[in-house]
Structures are given as structure tokens and as C-alpha cells.
Design goal:
The complex is a heterodimer. By secondary structure, chain A is mainly alpha-helical. Chain A has 14 helices and four strands. In chain A, the strands form two sheets. In chain A, strands 1-4 form a two-stranded antiparallel sheet. By secondary structure, chain B is α/β, with parallel strands linked by helices. In chain B, strand 4 and strand 5 form a beta hairpin. Chain B is globular. In chain B, 42% of the residues are buried. The chains are: A mainly alpha, B alpha/beta.
């Protein structure tokens, strides 16, 4: 980086194990978080908040959840959409059954519900691995969506089959429902993301994360050390599904306002999976970068021709956008198969040594 | 715990894979505090024996007793809980993790679990993490790998990977340490280092060690006792000097003239 760790001596293991051991990093990250919380609500217009930043923050949470399972514990899952749907429908049932319950508590309970479902669908992971496990988790995806479509109890017998976020307040501020403003919803979503990102980092840098990575890297050696595969994998499924469940609840309550099962179909599972592959498997930062890439790049591509003065038919532009987006994904995966997070790490290391090559 | 008898007793253990008898009624004892070498030609069943002891295979017949109690049918994590650690013939490190994390993982069973406290990195969870870090640093000092603490294990040269794997096994503070060819593929200097570490572990920490090794010079130098396997059977058991002169061992290694 432009700054180096020279002169910053660690005198305790606690200091060495800090998330950001370098002072400059701590300052920059704190500033970044402050900016993220304060600037968009004050500056950004309704379109940016509603169509870009809110989904970005929610996708980042879902990507974080999947990254814990796939990136850290090495269990490939295509059930993300299904687990998000569990969170959304659980939150809907909870808040309509107990309107007095704080909506943030509802989100957490919905996440716990998704965690239970995740554990059930994680049981096959003891026997099957890799692509075969991905196929098994597809069962979760299809079964859960089918369930929410078939059983009218989940939508409170609404004829339309949709769930709608009812108006709920937190400390007197309207957070969900038609009257909740975009800045409020953005801040709530970002707050949850910040808390859960910290929790995720604490998990992966400690005992739990090491047992996940041990199972991922060498399951036989992990066992002989005392890692119990079933318990470890199921914990990963539980925590991951919790994150996805909270993200799913936010997806309906803070972003869409109302939704059908179609919002949680297999496309969503793939989208979140692509986010962590592009962002970087086994990296918290990668989850954010991947979500940002998948959400922001198409918007940039949509607007870019207009800004440079190119005029072309809308249909053509849309197709070019898809082609460029696809090409960019391939380009980044060839340049750095380990994702944007690794690219960032390499850049930092190069800058640290600059101007010397090594 | 029974402190008197041998640490580990293998009694008449057979392992078969289909029609192949990988081990045939093998009996041996590992005494407390000794260094036992297990040798034999390729395919003699040495690694199979370690795999049976560490719970990857279960014997078809026979019994295994650890500290006087029957431990025949345990799974690998249960074996680890008893205080048996091992390394693998082909290094089995967690390649994506740093050396430090690899060794910290070795202390997993010494750590108490509470996911909620872990998630908050607070109180007992943080104190526990720091205490184990201090213990791991002592092992890092012991094995002289301070400089590579933060290096991803997959990027290390082979010799160092073997050393890190030993560190990870030591982190569990085992009573019995099983080493599967700890010196395979090393040059003379690396072998000397490894021998020194093994002797130090045995002498300073009092850990009982059973190792498989092909380098006869090393075996004869560092082990207290040698067990020889051939075609799944134990053909000799004794001090290095006894084994060296044993006719069955010579036959197994050099072949027998068939007149």
C-alpha cells in the first residue's frame, strides 16, 4: 500500500490476531463504514438507494452466508434461493402472527428458522461431496419453492399467492411497508450487514473457521485431529442458512416490499454463487466485492453508452450489455481464478514492495 | 488411567481388503516413553497398521488396547480424543491455511466450544484463543519455524511441510505420536533436523513415538525398538541390534535363495 506496517510492532498475541493489525487500515475501514452509513442516505436519490444500494447490501449478506458454507467449509450449495425463501416466508408468518414483535427480532428468528431447514438439507453432506452435493442441495431449492407455492398457509391464504411486508416500526421509525423510506431501509440493511460481517469474521478467524477450513482442505487429516465431520458441516450449513434466511427476509421486507416464490427461484441461487466465485471463495471481502461486481457492473454498462454519447437501439444495447458482462466475468476469472479479493491482496503486496519487484 | 502397562497393545489384529490380508494376526506393544520403529518392505502393511490404530480401518479380528482399555472400534476423532496424533506419508496439511492456523487447528480438542461467544470474539472465547496461541508459539519455537508462521502451508517446500505437519500433531499434546515416513524425500540435512526434533519430542516432552521409516541408518540410530513386518505378518521385534542380525529380516529384505 501507500503505507506500510514498518514501525508498528505487535507486543501481544491479541494485537497480532486483530482483524486489522495496521493502524492505517483501521482508520480507513472506520472511515469507509462511516461514509457507507452517512453519505448515501444524505446524497443518493431514490433510484440509487432503491434499485442499487439496497439490493447490493442484501446480496452481500447472502453472498457472505454462502461463502461461509462454500468458501470456508468447502460444501458446494445451490440451495441459496430456497434458504432465502425460508427466511422471507418465516419473517412474513412471524410478523403477521405476532405484530408486536420487533421486526429486527423477526429477522433474526427468520434466520434461525432457515438455519434449522439448512441443517436438515445439510445432512447428505456427510456422504456426498462437491458437484454431487450441489445436486443434492438443488433438491432443497426446488422442494422449498414448491412447498411455499403449494401450501396457502404460508401466504396467509392470500389469493394472489404473494407475501407483502406489513408496516413495522423500530424506535418509532417506519422500517418496512409502503411508507418506509429508502434511506431508512438502506441504513437498517447496512447495519445488519455490518454486524453479521463482524460475526462472520470472528467465526472464521477462530476455532470454528479453522475446523471448517480443515474439512475443506483435507477432511481425513481434519478427522484425525478431532474435527467431527458431520457436526462441523452441519454447523456450516446452519450458520450459512441463517445468513441467507436473514438476507431473504430483508429481500422482501426492505427491498421488494412484496414477492412471490418466483423471486427466490434457482436464478437467485446461481446469482449468489457467481458473486462468491467472482469475489473470491473463502474471503469476507470477496463476498462484498462479488456482490458489488454483479450488481454494479450491469448498471454501469447500461449507462456507459449514454454517457459517452453513443446512441443505439435499446434492444441492441441490452444485448451488448449482456455480452460485455459475460466477457468481463470470463476475463476476471482467467486473470485471477481466486477472485477479486485475491486480486486486491496481490495488488496490496505488490504496492508494499514497490518500486522493487520482490 | 492405568499407568503401569504398555501404552498401546495390538493383539492379533488382522485387516483384510476382500481376499487380500493386509495384516495377518499382528501383535505388538508400544511401551510408554519409547521410540518404536516399524519397518518392512513395500506393501508389508505398515501404513495399514497405523490406519488401524488411528481408526480409519477397523480390524477384521483382534483387539487394540490403549492404556489398558479396549479401543478396537473407535472413529478417528475419538482416537484423537484419547491422545493419539499422527502425520501422513503424503503430507496432509490444510493447504489454504497459514502455518499458524494449521498448528492452531491441532489444538482443536483442547478448546472448549461456544459458537455464540466465538461469534462475538469476547470473554472466554478470546482468552482461550490467546492462551492457545501462546502454546502454539512454543511449538513454533521448538521446531524452529518462526519465519514461516503466516505463510500459507501449500506454498512451503516439502521438507518444511513435513515439519509443520509434525508441529500440528504436537499441538494436540499427544501421549502417542504416530509418524508415517517422517523423513521420506528429505535430503541429509533435513533428515538430521527431523531426527533431532523426534529425539527432542521424545526426550523433552516425554511423548511416546511410533514411526515408519525406510532409512535404516535413521531407524537404527534413533529407535529403542524395531518391529519388522513382511506381507502383513510380524517377522521380528526387538532392539535395533537384534533385528539387524535376525535371519528372517535379512531374508525379507534381501530375498531368499530358492535351491
Amino acid at each position: 500500500m501507500i503505507y506500510r506496517e514498518a514501525g508498528q510492532f505487535k507486543t501481544s498475541y491479541a494485537a497480532d490476531q486483530a482483524i486489522f493489525p495496521i493502524v492505517q487500515d483501521r482508520v480507513l475501514v472506520t472511515l469507509g463504514i462511516l461514509v457507507a452509513f452517512l453519505v448515501p442516505p444524505l446524497v443518493a436519490d431514490e433510484y440509487w438507494l432503491q434499485a442499487v444500494l439496497i439490493p447490493l447490501v442484501i446480496y452481500a449478506l447472502a453472498a457472505l452466508g454462502l461463502n461461509l458454507l462454500t468458501g470456508y467449509a468447502g460444501q458446494l450449495s445451490l440451495g441459496t434461493g430456497g434458504f432465502m425463501a425460508v427466511g422471507a416466508y418465516a419473517a412474513f408468518k412471524l410478523t403477521t402472527s405476532f405484530p408486536a414483535l420487533n421486526i429486527l427480532v423477526v429477522f433474526v428468528l427468520a434466520g434461525l428458522m432457515a438455519a434449522v431447514v439448512g441443517i436438515v438439507f445439510g445432512i447428505p453432506s456427510l456422504r456426498i461431496k462437491g458437484f454431487y452435493l450441489a445436486v443434492a442441495t438443488l433438491a432443497a431449492q426446488f422442494f422449498l419453492i414448491w412447498l411455499f407455492n403449494k401450501v396457502p398457509w404460508f401466504v396467509n391464504y392470500a389469493a394472489s399467492g404473494t407475501i407483502t411486508a406489513p408496516p413495522r416500526t423500530v424506535f418509532g421509525v417506519m422500517v418496512t411497508g409502503p411508507l418506509a423510506t429508502a434511506p431508512v431501509r438502506y441504513v437498517v440493511a447496512l447495519g445488519l450487514l455490518a454486524v453479521f460481517a463482524l460475526v462472520a469474521k470472528n467465526l472464521v478467524r477462530g476455532r470454528v473457521g479453522r475446523s471448517w477450513m480443515a474439512i475443506r482442505d483435507r477432511d481425513i487429516a481434519a478427522e484425525i485431529i478431532g474435527v467431527r465431520p458431520l457436526r462441523t458441516k452441519l454447523l456450516a450449513f446452519a450458520v450459512s442458512s441463517f445468513y441467507c434466511g436473514v438476507a431473504g427476509a430483508e429481500f422482501v421486507f426492505l427491498y421488494l416490499g412484496s414477492a412471490e416464490t418466483l423471486a427466490f427461484d434457482i436464478t437467485l441461487s446461481f446469482l449468489v454463487l457467481f458473486m462468491i466465485i467472482i469475489g473470491g471463495l473463502g474471503s469476507i471481502l470477496g463476498s462484498f466485492l462479488g456482490a458489488a461486481f454483479i450488481v454494479l457492473v450491469p448498471i454501469f454498462l447500461t449507462n456507459a453508452p449514454h454517457h459517452v454519447g453513443l446512441v443505439m437501439p435499446v434492444a441492441l444495447q441490452k444485448q451488448i450489455e449482456l455480452m460485455v458482462f459475460g466477457a468481463l466475468i470470463i476475463f476476471f476469472l482467467i486473470v485471477e481464478p481466486h477472485g477479486l479479493a485475491r486480486l486486491w491482496q496481490i495488488t496490496k503486496e505488490k504496492l508494499r514492495l514497490w518500486p522493487f519487484p520482490h | 488411567m492405568n499407568d503401569a502397562g504398555p501404552l498401546l497393545e495390538v493383539e492379533g489384529v488382522s485387516v483384510r481388503f476382500g481376499a487380500l490380508m493386509a495384516l495377518h494376526q499382528v501383535s505388538l506393544r508400544i511401551e510408554r516413553g519409547e521410540i518404536l520403529a516399524i519397518i518392512g518392505p513395500n506393501g508389508a502393511g505398515k501404513t495399514t497398521l497405523l490406519n488401524v490404530i488411528s481408526g480409519f480401518y477397523h480390524p477384521w479380528e483382534g483387539r487394540i488396547r490403549f492404556a489398558g482399555r479396549d479401543r478396537t472400534r473407535l472413529k478417528p476423532p475419538d482416537v484423537a480424543e484419547l491422545g493419539i496424533a499422527r502425520t501422513f506419508q503424503n503430507v496432509a496439511l490444510f493447504k489454504g491455511m497459514s502455518v499458524l492456523d494449521n498448528i492452531m487447528t491441532g489444538r482443536l480438542l483442547k478448546m472448549r466450544g461456544n459458537v455464540v461467544l466465538d461469534a462475538l470474539w469476547w470473554g472466554p472465547a478470546q482468552r482461550q484463543e490467546l492462551a492457545h496461541r501462546a502454546a502454539v508459539e512454543r511449538i513454533i519455537d521448538f521446531l524452529e519455524i518462526q519465519a514461516i508462521r503466516k505463510t500459507p502451508a501449500g506454498k512451503l517446500p516439502y521438507g518444511l511441510q513435513k515439519r509443520v505437519e509434525l508441529a500440528r500433531a504436537l499441538a494436540a499434546e499427544p501421549q502417542l505420536l504416530l509418524l508415517d515416513e517422517p523423513m521420506a524425500g528429505m535430503n541429509v540435512e533435513e533428515k538430521e533436523d527431523m531426527c533431532r526434533f523426534i529425539l527432542d519430542v521424545n526426550g523433552e516432552l516425554g511423548t511416546t513415538i511410533a514411526l515408519i521409516e525406510h532409512d535404516m541408518g535413521v531407524v537404527m540410530d534413533i529407535s529403542d525398538r524395531v518391529v519388522v513386518l513382511d506381507y502383513g505378518r510380524k517377522i521380528a521385534d526387538g532392539t535395533p541390534d537384534q533385528v539387524r542380525k535376525d535371519q528372517a529380516v535379512l531374508d525379507a529384505y534381501l530375498g531368499v535363495a530358492h535351491d
